[in-house]
Write a structure and sequence with these properties.
By secondary structure, this protein is mainly alpha-helical. It has 2 domains: about 190 residues, no CATH class; about 300 residues, no CATH class. Helices cover about 70% and strands about 0% of the residues. The chain has 21 helices and 2 strands. The chain is globular and about 85 Å long. The two termini are about 15 Å apart.
């Protein structure tokens, strides 16, 4: 089920919220949690009921392993410590094998066939929605159990932690201690009118971002990356920038909606998106983009590898490992790995730059960082190398320059120097004269306007906010001509 669908907005969310509220009002706390678990499982299986068994299996196995690990802390004998480590390794292995099977089996088979000239049949496994997110969430749970930071005794509570539908399909990636104490709090069981107002406000902003902004830029991005045979200079830059904006407002919109929905239930999810295009360097970008994934990679990969406590060469190796894993987590493809490699290289360069004590003007730093991000998104978006090279070739001007026919009389004098043609503009991406206006306008928004988190900090329910919320929610709902997936659902 998608947040940006009529059924979710008009039926699922109101019914789920109403029943949960009524159960808590009658002090049926356990029943309210069971209801949320069942609603979340329905939400997940609505897309494909066959994967309901998969998520239930992962919940049961991880819960049993987690409780076994926690039980070993009652006795610090060598046998119990060994058992704790054994369960820990089993839990991590189970989750990784599950993720590898569903997400990477065909990738490995394709490459084995190419390297060894073999002919293994591909399994064509349909990737279960959200598997990367609920797998990482449960890996974090196993690790936290091993550290003695978590002790979950109830299967209902653990199921709610994993399946709580606002974060289930595309994050944020949670720690048990972040969410479950909130459900135990007495304040979580009482109707909170301000939280409801904040929740609807955030949900409306997120829906508006997704439906009216992200999906609009998707048209130019999809045409450029998927359908165009070649792209001229301006078409390639329009396609790449359109994808950068599509991804920005799509993921930002999902995050706003997830946080807003959870606020209805008096649950504060961690911030996962914080104006990343305002970043002044690559490290700053990863502190702003998909914040909980960056935290996971830092806590469970970078630090165990030695983090910053090793010599410089080992630190660079650790950083590269983190970004290669992060790239591969996003998708089973060499372009994703290369995208991760580029970010790893940029992070290493940034660290060297800092060690040498160099400084840079803030505005120049933001511009350079964004251009690096925009160019590397090409590999993130492209379906294969040929598609990526097509866009990059166009961005360098190697495929020619075309300007609007209306400018021919004024700019014909520069044609001999730059081989510029005057014809229909941006035709290969279905763009027009207004395309760059909208691109520049929303780039300005992403660089300058306060984000949703900052606005909510000063949010006070009043008529001004109510009218604004009603206006953008109405506009978004009326624009739901077709339901489109969020980009991060594919990861």
């Amino acid at each position: 089920m998608l947040f940006n669908s009529y059924f979710f907005i008009a039926v699922f969310l109101p019914v789920t919220f109403l029943v949960y509220t009524l159960l808590n009002r009658h002090k049926l706390t356990k029943a309210s949690r069971i209801w949320l678990v069942l609603a979340s499982l329905f939400f997940y299986s609505y897309w494909d009921y066959r994967y309901l068994i998969l998520i239930l299996l992962t919940i049961i196995v991880n819960f049993l392993i987690g409780t076994r690990i926690s039980a070993t802390f009652a006795d610090e004998s060598n046998s119990m410590v060994f058992r704790r480590k054994l369960f820990f390794v089993a839990g991590i292995t189970w989750n990784l094998l599950l993720l590898m099977f569903f997400k990477y089996t065909d990738f490995f088979l394709v490459n084995i066939n190419q390297i060894f000239s073999s002919s293994y049949n591909l399994l064509h496994i349909v990737l279960p929605l959200g598997i990367s997110f609920f797998t990482f969430t449960q890996i974090a749970y196993i690790v936290d159990c091993f550290k003695g930071e978590v002790k979950e005794t109830g299967i209902i509570n653990y199921s709610l932690f994993v399946t709580f539908f606002p974060h289930l399909l595309a994050g944020p990636i949670l720690h048990h201690k972040e969410m479950m104490p909130q459900f135990d709090s007495a304040r979580a069981k009482v109707l909170n009118h301000k939280n409801i107002a904040v929740g609807i406000f955030l949900f409306s902003i997120g829906l508006f971002k997704k439906v009216l902004i992200a999906d609009s830029f998707a048209i130019w991005a999809n045409e450029g990356f998927d359908n165009a045979v070649y792209l001229t200079f301006f078409e390639a830059w329009a396609a790449s920038l359109s994808y950068s904006l599509q991804l920005y407002f799509d993921f930002s919109g999902y995050t706003d909606m997830a946080l807003g929905i959870s606020m209805l239930f008096n649950i504060r999810l961690p911030i996962n998106f914080n104006s990343p295009y305002k970043a002044v360097n690559i490290q700053d970008f990863w502190r702003r983009w998909h914040i909980t994934l960056s935290r996971f990679l830092r806590d469970y990969i970078y630090i165990p590898l030695g983090g910053n406590k090793k010599d410089e060469g080992r630190i660079y190796f650790n950083l590269m490992c983190v970004f290669l894993i992060g790239g591969f987590w996003h998708g089973a493809g060499w372009t994703f790995l290369f995208w991760g490699f580029l970010h790893g290289c940029a992070t290493v360069v940034h660290r060297i730059w800092q060690r040498l004590g160099f400084k840079m003007n803030r505005h120049i730093a933001i511009l350079l960082t964004f251009n690096f991000i925009n160019i590397t998104w090409v590999f993130f978006r492209a379906k294969d190398w040929d598609s990526a090279l097509k866009v990059l070739k166009g961005m360098t001007g190697a495929s020619g320059f075309i300007l609007p026919k209306a400018l021919e009389a004024k700019l014909a004098f520069i044609d001999p120097y730059f081989r510029i043609s005057f014809d229909e503009w941006l035709v290969n991406i279905r763009g027009d004269q207004k395309t760059f206006f909208w691109i520049l306008a929303f780039l300005a928004v992403s660089f300058t306007i306060k984000n949703s988190n900052q606005i909510v900090e000063r949010f006070t329910p009043n008529w001004k906010y109510a009218c604004f919320t009603a206006a953008i929610l109405t506009a978004a709902i009326l624009s739901l001509t077709k339901v489109t997936e969020f980009i991060y659902f594919n990861f």
